[in-house]
Amino acid sequence: MGLEGLFPLLSSTGEYRGLLEHVSQGEAAARAVVPEPALPYCVGALREDLKVPILVLVARPERARRLYEDLLVWCGEDAGIYHFPEGETLPFERLTADDATIHGRLRTLAALLGFEREGQASPIVVASLAAVAQRTLAREAFQASCHYVAAGQRVNLGELVEMWQRAGYRVERAVEVPGTVSRRGGILDVYPPEAELPARIELWGDVVESIRLFEPASQRSVKTVREVFIPPAQEMLPAMTLREEVEERYSHLDLSNCIPAIRERIQEEMALLLAGHTLEEQGFYQGFFCRGSVLDFFPQGGLLVVEGP
After folding, report:
1. pTM of the model
2. Which pLDDT band, with edges at 50, 70 and 90, does 116 fall under?
3. Radius of gyration of the chain (CA)
4. Residue 62 and residue 68: Cα distance in Å, rounded?
5. What beta strand segments (E) does 172-294 contain?
6. H or E, element range at 309
7. Of 117, 171, 269, 305, which residue is 20 to 30 A from 247 by alpha carbon distance?
8. What is the pLDDT of residues 18-51, one digit of tens each?
9. Which stretch of DSSP H or E encloses residue 12?
């Protein structure tokens, strides 16, 4: 439950009706003076009236998180509100990125693409300048990594697990966290990053017999579903990136000032990545493989709201 019942009250004001008219007519830009506490109220009302996806761009990460929480209060927890977070690591840092942050970014990208499918709610995405500036998986690679598994579908177990690994999933003994898969005989468990619960896919031969969502802690089934959506589990997918493009970028890298040990390490790691392997600190090379932007995923006809341009 949210406060969405109050949105129609805003329509009674002349200022809001004028703003709505400008936006509805496809004006290139419209300016509105909105007190900071009222911004989530106004954005929520605009989505109700326009029924288009909205990207709210703010200056700082802490403001993005606060606005996201305010929108949840106004629109409700299940109203398609997404925070597109910024990564904690800087370019060329040998640090392991936090999976929760990566999965939050991937959930947002999946939601923006999901709007293109009939019946999906219009998402509201809140992002800081830093989050939008950081590169992500190219839209084409993201779409190529997405697929559905449905009951009654014929699948090849080995090929399916291999495809999930190329899409960034880790094979574990048990599925407990998002971005992992496991295989036991004719049973596949998979935990997509955007899903609330993992899915257990049971096969009879090469046919999907049933798909059940289950609690990862107790392993108890919660409900049966007809299909499950599988998006990529990582923003950097060496196996899904065109090798020629990466090699062309890598050819411009000047390693002449590196000591031999560092130069050899970089060459060895790049060779592994170009072969489709994953590394512990592969985020160091993210600039070679991630060339997309969240703006590439934003549908035409969406509304961009810039706070304090």
Report:
1. 0.86
2. very low
3. 22
4. 10
5. 180-184, 187-190, 199-204, 207-214, 221-225, 227-230
6. none
7. 171
8. 888 888 776 667 788 888 888 999 998 888 888 8
9. none
